[in-house]
Amino acid sequence: MRDKVVLFYPPYAGPPLGAPLCLLSLASPLLNAGLRLSLIDAAVQPDFEAAVAREIDQALCLGISFFTGPMIGSAVRVARMAKRIRPELPVVFGGWHASLLPDQTLRADCVDMVVRGQGELTLLDIAQRLLVGKSLEDVPGVSFKTGGETVHNPERPVENINNLPSPAFDVVDFDAYERACGYREVGYATSIGCPYACNYCTDQVFYKRRFNAYRAERVVEEVTDLVGRYRLSNVTFFDSNFPVDLKRALAIARGFVESKMRFGWSVQASTDLLCRMSDEDVSLLGESGLDHIGCGTESASPEVLALMNKKQQRIDDMYEAARKTERAAIHVTYNLILGYPGETEADRIETFRIMSEIARQHFNVSFSPNIFTPYPGIPIWPQLRQMGVREPQSLEEWESLPLGNNILPWLRGEELERLRRMLEFFLLNNQIRRATSAAPWLRGARKALGAPLRWRLRKSYFAFPWELWVARNTERLVTRRSLLTGQALSHNMQEVC
Question: What's 403's DSSP letter?
Answer without folding.
Answer: T
